[in-house]
Amino acid sequence: MKKEDTVKLISAEGFEFVVDKEAAMVSQTIHNMLTSPGSFAERQHGEVTFPEISTTILEKICQYFYWHLQFASGKETEFPIEPELTLELMMAANYLHT
Amino acid sequence: MKRESELVGLCIEAACESRESVEKWRMQRRSLDRLPSPVADALLRRLIARRLLYPSLLEVFKHSAEEVDVRDNGSVDEEWMAYLGAFRHLRYLNLADCHRITTSALWPITGMTTLQELDLSRCFKVNDAGISHLLSVPNLEKLRISETGVTAKGVKLLASLQNLSLLDLGGLPVDDVSLTSLQVLKRLQYIDLWGSKISNKGAAVLNMFPKLTHLNLAWTSVTKLPTLSSLEFLDMSNCTIDSILEDDKSPLVKLIFSGATFLNEAGAFSYANTNLVSFLDVAHTSLHKFFFLSKMKVIEHLNLSSCMMGDDSVEMVACIGGNLKSLNLSGTRVSSAGLGILAGHVPNLEILSLSKTPVDDTGISFISMMPSLKDVDLSNTNIKGFLHQGKVDVDSSLSLMALQNLKLERLNLEHTQVRDEALYPLSSLLELRYLSLKSASLADVSLYYLSSIPKLTNLSVCDAVLTNYGIDIFKAPETLKLLDLRGCWLLTEDSILSFCRHHPQVEVLHELGTVYPFNQNGPNHSSPSRSTSRTVQMAKKKDPVPVLPYLADQRLKYSRDELLALQFASFPLASSTVDTWDVVKDCFYLVVSAGSQKQRVLSVSGIPSQPQFTSISTRLMIPVMCKILCFYYQPDRGQAANGRKGSNDTIIII
C-alpha cells in the first residue's frame, strides 16, 4: 500500500489507525481536511488527530468507513452497533459528518 | 431541519432498539450532556416514535434537547411536564392532542425564557387559568390553543404576550371584545379564528395588525373585511360573504372560500387584488359566473369541485391555464366537450380530478393532450374503456390507450364501467405508482395486465370478482407495497396468507384480515357470524358499510377446496359435501348485499323460504348463481336479463 493512498487517524489516547484514503473520505469532515486548498498539516502528512474521539469509537468509525464502501457497492449487511457505544459514536459521527 | 448523517441515523436506530438498549446508555451522563442539540432532538424524536420515552428518561435530555414533540400521546401528564420544565434550552414544545394535559400541568413551564413555540391544540382540559401560567413565558412567539377549554376571558389575557407572531384560536368562543383587546399585539402575522363568535364589528379591528398575512375566519358570521394591506392567506370557508377586500392593496396569494355563500356574486372578487393569487378554493359554492378567474393569471391550484361549472364556462379556466398545476372539477357538469376546450391550454397541469362528472371515453383523448399530467381521478365517470360505445367487437379501440402518451403516476378508475380487457393499455404506463379500481366487473385477467406495470407501489382492486387462483398466479410488481383487495368476496384467508408469504414486502387489505409487511403472526380475524337472518336485515336496510363483513363471513363455512370448485363453476364439483341449499342461500345473500352496496332497493321475492333445492345438483345451481351475479353487475345487459322493474331491482332466481 502506497503512503499516498492511506491516511493515519489518531485517537485521543494516541492510537494510530492507518486506513485507505478512499475509506476515510466517507467522512465529509476528513474529506474537507484532505482536499481543501492551502497547506493544512493534515494534508501534508496524511495524519489527522482527533483529541475528542476515544480509541474504541475511532475503531468503530474506521469499521464503518469500510462497511459504507461495501454497502455502496451493493453488499447489504447490517452494521452492528453496541448500545453502550451509541451516544459517543453518535457525537463522533456528527462531528465527522459521516 | 438538517438531516442527520447516516452513521448518526444508525446510532439512533441502535440506541432505540429496545428498552434494554436504552438502559445501556442512559447512565452515560457526560455524553448526554454534551450531545449537540440537533442530535439530541433526533434521538428524542425516535424514542417518542418507538414509544420508549418515559418521564424519568426525559431528565437525561435536559441540557441538550431544544425541541420536544410529544403530540397525540395519551400518557403525557403532569409528571412529564415536571421534567420538561427543567429543560434548559427548550425552544419548541408540542403537546397537541395530549388529553391528560391540564391547567395545573402547565405550571412547570411558567417563566421559561427559552420557550418560543407552544402547541396545546385540543388539550381540552386547559382553561383560562392555564393561559395565566403562560403569561410569564416572555419570549413566546407562536401559540396554538385551538379547541381547548379557553374562553374569551382567557384570550383577553394573551394581550400581554407582546412577542406573539402566530396565534391559533380556532374553535374558541372568541368574541369581538376579546379580539379588540388583542390589538396591542403588533407583531401578529397569523391569526386563526375559525368557528369563533367574531362578527363584522370584531373583524373591523383586524386592520390594527399591520403585519397580518394569514387570516382564518372559516365558520364565522363575518361578511365584510377591512383593508388588510399585507394579507396573503384568507380562509372564509362556510361564511356568508358580502364583499371581501374592497381595496386592491392586499397581496393575496391563497384564498379558500369552500362552502361559502356569496351575497353579491358579481362583485365578490371585482375589487380585490387577485393578480397574485396562486391558490383558489371555491368548492361547494353557488358561483356560476367565473369572470373573476380572468384576472388570476398566475394561479396554480384551482378547486371548483361541486361548483356550477359547466362546459360553457370552462373557457374561463382555459384562459388562465398557463401556470395551473392542479385543477379539481369533481362534481361539476364539465363533460368531454369541456375537456376539449381545456386541452392545449394547460401545459403545466399535473393533478386533474374529474370525479363525478359526465366525462366519457372521448374525454380521455383530450386528457392525453395535457402533457404534464401525473395524477388523474376519473372515478364515478361514464368511462367504459372503449371508444365506440355499443359495439363490443375487437376492432373498437381501447380509449385508455391514449393515456400512454402521459407520464401518469396516479390513476383512479373506481366506479367506472371499465372492464378487464379495457385495462390492457395500463400495462404500459411506465411511471404509474398508484392505481385504484373498484368494480364488480373486474376479474383475474385485470391482475394479469396490471402485473406488468413496472413502478406500481399501491394497487387497489376493490369489489372485484378475483379468485384464489387469480391471486396465486398474480406476479406482483417488485415495487408493490400495498394491495387493497377489500370487497373481493371470492378470496379466502388461505390464499391471501399464501400471497403474503410469497410477497413479504406487500401490505394486503381485506375483510378477512389486514396483513402488514414483516408481520405475519396472525391477521385480525373478523368474528364469523352465522346469523344469516341478520344479513338479510342489513341488506334490506340498504346499509352498505356493515354488510361487507357478513358478506365475507358467509364463506368461512367452506373449505378451500369447495371454494376452488365454486370458482370454476362451469366444471363439475368434485364433491358434494357442501349443503346445496346453503350454497344457494349464501350466494343469494351475496347478491343482495352487493346490491345494497350500490344503494339499490332489492326485494327478496322469488326465494322460497324452505330448503327445496336439495334435490337440485350443486353442479347446476352454482353456474346459475354466478350468472345472476354477472348479469347484475353489467347494467346494460343485466337490465333485460335479471328482470329490473322500475327503480326496484328484483332478482328472481328461478
UniProtKB/TrEMBL annotation, chain A:
The keyword Protein biosynthesis applies. InterPro entries: ELC1 (IPR039948), SKP1-like (IPR001232), SKP1/BTB/POZ_sf (IPR011333), Skp1_comp_POZ (IPR016073). GO terms for biological process: jasmonic acid mediated signaling pathway; ubiquitin-dependent protein catabolic process. Its main location: nucleus. One of its GO terms (cellular component) is nucleus. One of its GO terms (molecular function) is translation elongation factor activity. Keywords: Elongation factor, Nucleus, Protein biosynthesis. Residues 6-69 form the SKP1 component POZ domain. CDD domains: BTB_POZ_EloC. It holds the Pfam family Skp1_POZ. It is found in: Nucleus. Pathway: Protein modification; protein ubiquitination. Gene3D superfamilies: Potassium Channel Kv1.1, Chain A. Belongs to the SKP1 family. This is Elongin-C. It comes from Cajanus cajan (Pigeon pea).
UniProtKB/TrEMBL annotation, chain B:
InterPro entries: Leu-rich_rpt, Leu-rich_rpt_Cys-con_subtyp, LRR_dom_sf, Zyg-11_UBL_adapter. SMART domains: LRR_CC. It holds the Pfam family LRR_6. It comes from the Eukaryota. This is F-box and leucine-rich repeat protein 13. It comes from Vigna unguiculata. The lineage of its organism: Eukaryota, Viridiplantae, Streptophyta, Embryophyta, Tracheophyta.
